[in-house]
C-alpha cells in the first residue's frame, strides 16, 4: 500500500557566508579594530595619571591603584559570561552595547568626585571593555573566510600592540595640556566614531536560543574573582588566612560551575572545549605566553629606572621597541598563519621571545640604549609571531556555534596570564628584594621557553 501522507518539512539553518569580501571586509575590520583600540587605550591610560588622581581626590597612593584594579578585575571576571551572552544576542550587538556602556561609564569617570565613585565607574568601564574584547575574535571569524582567519587575527594583534603602546603616550600628551578627567572625556568622540562604524559595518551573526544561566554566571564571576584576588593577596604577602579563604571560595565555585556546565550545549565555562587536547594546549600556551610577557612588561621599567638610573622619559622610550617588534612581525606571520601549523609558528615565536628575555637578563652592567632596544625588539617580534597562529588554532578548532566561547577563552588566556604575571612580579619583588626586577627577566625567559615547549608538543599530537 502506498503511503500518500505528505513529507514532513524540515527546517534547516541557512548556510553561513564564508566571510566578507572587498570593502565590506575592510569596513568591518576597521570597526572591530577601533572598538578594540577604545578598550585597550583605557586599559593602560589611567596608570600614568594615578599620582594626579590620588592628589586631586585626596586618596592614598595605595588606594588609587584600585582605579586600575577595578577595571582589570571587572573585565576578567565578566569575559566568559559575556562571551556566552554574545552567542545568544549576537556578537555585533554585544560589541555595540559594550561601546555604549564604555562611553556612559567614561562620562561617569570624568565627572567622579571621589575615589569610590571613580572606582565604581571603572568597574562599569571594565564590563564595557569586556563586551568588546570577549567577542572581537569571534567577529573576525565571520569577517574573514575560513582560509584567511589567520590574517585577520594577525591584524587584530597589531591593533592590540598599538593600543598597548599608545596608552601611556596618549596619557602623557593629554596630561601635559589638561587634567586627568580628560583621559575619559576623550573616549566620547572616539567611542561615537567606533559606535557609528559598528552599526554600519559589523556583520550580524547567528544566535542561539539558549536561556540565560544566571546561576552559572554568578558562579563564574565568584570563582574567577575570588581565585584571582586570593592569589593577588598572597603574592603581596598579605593576610594569609584571607588569601587561603578566597582561593578556597574560588576553587569551590569553580568546581560547582564545572559540574553545572558539564552537560550544557553552550556552557559559560567551555568545559567541552578544554577537554580537547588541541584547544587546551593552545589555551595554556597563550596563558603562559602572557604570564611571561607581564613578567617583562611590569619589571623592566624598574630595571631601567632603578637599577640603571635612566630617566622616566627614556625608560618609556626603551619599552617602545616591544610593541614595535610585535607590529613588525605581523606582515611575516600573516603570510604563514593560515598554512603552517601553530605548533611550528608559535613555538618559533615563543623561542625568539625567550631568547630576547635571556639577552635582556644578560645585559652588561652599563648597557647602551641600543643594547637595550634591539634585545627588547627581538622579544617583541617573537611575541607578535606567536599570538596569531595560537589564537587561530583555538578559533578554527571549534564550530561557528561555539565561536563565542572560544573567543572568550582567547581573552581569558590573555587577561588571566597578565594577572598572574603581575602577581609573579609582586612575589619576586618581595622574595628577591633589590634583585627582584632582574630575576623577573629570567623568570620571563623560563616561562616563555616552557610555553614554546608546550606549543611544540602539538607537532606530536594525533590529528
From TrEMBL:
Question: Primary place of residence?
Answer: membrane
The keyword Transmembrane is assigned to this record? yes
GO terms for cellular component: membrane
Question: Has keyword Ion transport?
Answer: no
Task: Please state where this protein is localized.
Answer: Membrane
PROSITE patterns, sorted? MFS
Q: Which residues form the Major facilitator superfamily (MFS) profile domain?
A: 28-463
What membrane topology does the annotation report for this chain? Multi-pass membrane protein
Gene Ontology terms, MF aspect: transmembrane transporter activity
Name-wise, this protein is Transporter
Classification lineage: Bacteria, Pseudomonadati, Pseudomonadota, Alphaproteobacteria, Acetobacterales
